[in-house]
Amino acid sequence: MSEPLISTQTANEQLRRADERWAAAVRGLRPYGERLLELADAAEHESRALLLSDLANVKWNPRPGARNVRLAYEVEEDSGRPGPRELWAKFDRAVKQLGVALEGESIRAIADAFSQLSAHTRQIADAIALPAAAEEDPSTGRRAG
Fold first, then answer.
1. Does 47 reside within a domain?
2. Which of 55, 72, 81, 125 could form a disulfide with 5 if both were Cys (CB 3.0 to 4.6 A apart)?
C-alpha cells in the first residue's frame, strides 16, 4: 500500500465537518431555491472530504440498506417540488446512485455520487431562480407587482 498523501486525522476532520454541513443542509428551513443551493454546496463538500479520505487511505464501512436513502420530504417526488421534471429525474437518479455507492466500499464512488448530486441540485436551483429573476424590477431588484 502506498504512503497516504494526507494524514488520516486531517481527512477524518474534513469529513466530519462536511457531514455536519450535509446534515444541516438536509434539515434547512430557508426558501426552496436557497435550500437547494445549500444542499448542492454540502454535497460538493462531502465529495471533496471523501476524496481527501481516499488520499489518506481511509477505509469506508459499507452501509447496508443505503440504496433506500431519503433526503428531506421537500425534495421527494410526491412533494410537489418546483422546477423542470427532467432535472428532477436526474436528481432522483443521483440520489439512488448515492445510496448504491454508500452500500459499497469505494470512497471514490461515494465522492463521485455526491459530486453528481451537487451538480444536478445546482441545475434545479438555477432553473428555479431564473423565472423569479425575470419577474424582478431591475431598478430595485424586487419582484414586480
1. yes
2. 55
